[in-house]
Structure formats: C-alpha cells, structure tokens
Amino acid sequence: MLGLGVMILSVAIVKGFKHEIREKVRGFAGDIRIIKSDLNSSYESSPITYDANFVKRALKNPLITHVMPSATKPGIIKANNEIEGVVLKGVDKTYDWTYLKKMLLAGDVIDFKDSVEAQKEIMLSQQTANRLKLKVGDKMLMYFVQEPLRKRQFTIKGIFSIGEEEIDKTFVIGALSLINRLNDWKPGEIGEYEMRVADFNQVDVAADRIDDMLPIKLKSHTVMEDYPNIFEWLKLLDVNSVVMLVLMVIVAVINMISALLIMILERTAMIGMFKAMGASNWNIQKVFLFNATYLIGLGLLLGNIFGIGIGFFQQQTHFFKLDQASYYMTFVPVQFNLSDILLLNLGTLVICLLVLIIPSTLVSKISPVKAIRFK
Q1: Is this model's pTM higher than 0.90 or not?
Q2: 95: which of 38, 91, 164, 349 fits an S-S bond (Cβ 3.0–4.6 Å)?
Q3: Per DSSP, what are the bridge partners of residue 153?
C-alpha cells in the first residue's frame, strides 16, 4: 500500500512540477521565436520587417496557435533612490495575455486602445516592484543607454509574478511601438515573432516546419534553446522519479517475499497433508500464489486510495507549500495521468507475482513425512 501510494505521488508530483515550470517559461517567452539571422546575442533586438503574409502562412499550420510581434531593449529603472537593470519586452495589441492575466497580482495588463497612453504604461514583476518599492499607479523613470541617452517616464499598470527568478528579475513589459521609436526603426519593423503551439510536445516539429518557410535572413529558436538550463534540469527530475520507483518496487517485493515465506512456514503441516493426498508441487504453489495475489490486490486498492487521495487533496487545497525562491512555485504541484496509474498498478502486480514464484518453490523442498510429523 505504502509503496504504490508513494509511487503514484512521486510520478504525479514530478509531472506536475515539470508541467508548472514549463508553462511558466513558455507562457511568458512563447514556444518559438523568429529572429534576425545574425551574431547578435544581446537583449537588444535586431530589426526585421513585419510580414503579414508570413504570419498568415504560419497560422495555417495547425500546430501554431498564435504569432505575435515583439522586441526587447535593455534599460535601467530609477525609483525611490534605487536602480535596477531590466529588459523591456515590447508587445502590441495582438499579444495573447491569457497566461499573464493568471499571473497578475495587482493592476491590469496594458490597454492598447489608446496607443499613445499605452507607451506610457509598464508592467513589473513583484520581485522588481518590491526592490524598487513600487506599486500599481506609481510613476518611475527608465533610462535607455544609447547615443544620445534617452529616458522615459512610465506609470505602473500591473504587477505580475511568473515565479521563475530568471524571468521575474529580468523582464518588464511595455509597448512595442515605444521600442520602435527609441531605436529609430522604420514603421513596421519589429524585433522578433513570438509563436505559441497547440501541443508543446510537437514544438520541435512545428519549428522545423516554420524553418522551411523562413527566408535565409531569419532563424528560429525554441524555448528549450533560449532556456537550456531550466529544461535540462527538468530532464534530471525524470532520473529522480525512476530511482524512487525502483526503490519502492524493491521494498514492495521484499515485503511480499517475507509474507509468502511466513505463510509457507506456518502451513508446513498443511503442505505435508496435501502432498500425502497426491497434490503436486505446482498445485500447492498456486494456493499460496492465489493468496499472495489477494494480499497484493488489497494493497493495490489501499495504495490507490492513499496516493490518489492525498494527491487530490493537494490539488484542491495546495496544503503542502514550497519556498518559491528555491522551487519557482509556492505549493507542491500534482498532475495525475490515468495511464501512469494503470501502468504502476499493473507493473507492481506483475513484478511481485513473478518474483514470488521463486520463493514459492520452497514447497517442493518440504517432505510430507517430516511435515506431518512436525504437526
């Protein structure tokens, strides 16, 4: 029961953790970025010309759900005698705010109905706002290091918390048109296309198909290439999950072998009687294997109730908390998958029964005469 319950929770927590971290990163950064094919590796976007025809062709691909223009530009915020280096991510009215609205702690997203006012609004992370002692509605100055030096005053429109430190401490969100003006770009020039896919498992396939459509001056980057450390770390979690499953299966097998051996020793006289009456070793073994199957089945039932019950309780209440600074979230995430639960139950049952065949052969070593005399 405990072995299966722990295995179910381990798989569910690892999957939930990977899903939450992945959604945080891709929810902010997108799944695929189309940028200029040059040697620029800084946060200062190189300009490309917005191509409406390319966007239409990309959206015809069923794997692509959104194509949004954006750009980035480094800057320095000065407020309340504090300074903070950040990167301004510029977006426009076509930006999909679905994820960021979920991450909002205060205020609202930028309203592009009035393009002039939109250029004066900015969104900060909770981490940046706390450091600079800012709140929604406050005004602040942001300096852009270029020739000549430029500064702009912004009003805090919203405060969000992605929960991923690399993003929260780095990015603020503003208007794409402002970056266009600051960089003296031509009308219609942007920094990149940000794309989102319907199924993240197909992101590499989608990127390959987009690459076939791109001119030689453009190239694509997936979110895994932009944040390699995070996604490599998530892959390591699978190793932890496998180690936990192996350990729990070993514990379950040892417990069942011990129980079976005890049952055989307790029924030594019964085995002797069966043999004296002509029962074969295999027929006697089946008696003990059937009994072991009953015990395993009862353990599986209780294990499912234990594991799924605690997981469901955590899903509904978020009772078990985490340190966001270390784990990128405030609670233990749980994600159940029916196929995982069925495979864990079936695998545990089959492995335990197969392993129990060996100790059940102890029946063949028992002599009927000695067993009956022992009684």
Answers
A1: no
A2: 91
A3: 141
Angle (deg, nearest 10), helices 2-29 and 228-266: 170
A 10 A CB-CB count for 229 gives 8
Are 51 and 277 spatial neighbours (Cβ–Cβ below 8 Å)?
Answer: no
* Per-residue model confidence as pLDDT tens digits over 199-235: 998 999 999 999 988 888 899 999 998 888 888 888 8
The DSSP annotation for 62-92 comes to TTEEEEEEEEEEEEEEEETTEEEEEEEEEE-
DSSP letter, residue 363 = G
Residues 6+ apart with CB under 8 A from 74: 42, 43, 44, 85, 86, 87, 88, 144, 145
pLDDT attached to residue 369: 63
Measure the CA–CA gap between 9 and 20, rounded to whole angstroms: 16
Beta pairing class for 150-160 and 192-197: unpaired
Phi, psi of 175 (to 5 degrees): -90, 135
Please enumerate in sequence order all residues whose Cβ is within 8 A of that of 263, keeping only pairs 6 or more positions apart, or say none: 288, 291, 292
Burial environment of residue 58 by CB neighbours within 10 A (0 to 12, 13 to 18, 19 or more): buried
221 — phi, psi (to 5°)? Answer: -135, 130
Whether residue 285 contacts residue 360, with contact meaning beta carbons closer than 8 Å, is answered with yes
Distance, in Å, from the CA atom of 238 to the CA atom of 18, rounded to the nearest integer, reads 9
